[in-house]
Structures are given as structure tokens and as C-alpha cells.
Amino acid sequence: MNKLLEVYSKGFFNTLKEEEVEVATIRAQDIVENYSQKDLRDFFKNKTIRKEDKLNLALELVGESSLKGLANSLSQNNRFELMPEIFKHFIDYASIRQNKIPVKVTTNKEPNEEMKNNISAFVKVNLGASTPIKYEVSKSLIGGIILKHKDNEIDLSIDNKLNGLREALIN
């Protein structure tokens, strides 16, 4: 399925003018952050909902942005169920193509505003103000934070500290 998401993301990206990419990425990010991905997926997968109703919701979600073309393409190909995943994949794909690779911040719970401000200040000083930040929550982390950018990683997690202590005790 990743290949299919890549095909749609790449195809859509290639149809956009340079100035449209930023607007489409922001709108896709807005949809990913502000709408339940499970609810969207369930709605678009539901076979009892008419195709026209799915298209209307998709067009309402994307508004007047250039994402309308993607929504219409998914409608023509009966691939509405891919919409939430395509938005996520498109954001990542567009970031890479624009050389705006985000810093991936992983924590064990949703970061508060103070933490976000501190991370934003750190990223601004070390990587530049235009570097995007992508937050992820991993319940498997005991605590702390992990920052990844390209091939670099700063692991300040409790898990990492415990592993270091374990290695020191074993040796």
C-alpha cells in the first residue's frame, strides 16, 4: 500500500505549481491534525455511503485549495478510503521534495505548549527557523524525548538511560 500512497503523492505533487505546494501542504496538515483519521477512514470505507456524499465531504474538507484535484482523482478511481493516509504521505513527500525535512519529535504523551516552545527554540537555533517540526506520541516510551533529523538523533529518553545503565552493570 505504501507504493500506492507514493504514486498518488508524487503524482499530485507533480501537478502543482511551486507556490501551490506550500498551500496544499498546509491544508493537508490541517486536515491531519484537526480531524479524526479513524473517523475519516471509516466514513470513506463505508460502502453504504454514496460516492457523491463521499466526494462532497472530501471537497468540503479540502476547501478551495489545490487538493480538490486529488479529491476528484480519488473519486474517479474509487479510492476514497486512501484519503487520510495520502494526506499524511503527501506532507512527508512534499517536505522531502522541497528539502524541508522535518525534525521528528517523539514523546510518551502529547507535549504541552512550554515543551513545544522549547523544542521550537532549539530547532530554530540549531537548524533554522524554517525547519518544520513533526510530533509523534509513542506509548512505548517510559518518558523523555527523542529528536530525529535526517541521520541525526538526540535520544533523551528514559529508555535510553536505562539501556546505558544496563550495559554499564553488565560490563
Number of DSSP strand runs: 4
The description of the largest β-sheet is: 4 strands, mixed
Low-confidence runs (pLDDT<50, min 5 residues)? none
Global geometry: elongated
Please trace the helix and strand order, writing H or E for each element.
HHHHHHEHEEEH
Relative strand content:
5-15%
Task: Give the topology, please.
Elements: H1 2-15, H2 18-34, H3 37-45, H4 51-62, H5 67-76, H6 83-97, E1 103-107, H7 113-127, E2 133-137, E3 145-149, E4 152-155, H8 158-170
Parallel strand pairs: 1-2
Antiparallel strand pairs: 1-3, 3-4
How would you explain this protein's 3D organization?
This protein is α+β, with helices and mostly antiparallel strands and 171 residues long. The chain is 61% helix and 11% strand. The protein is built from eight helices and four strands. Strands 2-1-3-4 form a four-stranded mixed sheet, with no helix packed on it. Helix 1 crosses helix 6 (83-97) and helix 4 runs antiparallel to helix 5 (67-76). The longest helix is centred in the N-terminal third of the chain and has 17 residues, at 18-34. The relative contact order is 0.12.
List keywords for this structure.
alpha+beta, four-stranded mixed beta sheet, 171 residues, single chain
Characterize this entry briefly.
This protein has helices at 2-15, 18-34, 37-45, 51-62, 67-76, 83-97, 113-127, 158-170, and strands at residues 103-107, 133-137, 145-149, 152-155. The chain is of the alpha+beta class. A four-stranded mixed sheet has the order 2-1-3-4, with no helix packed on it.
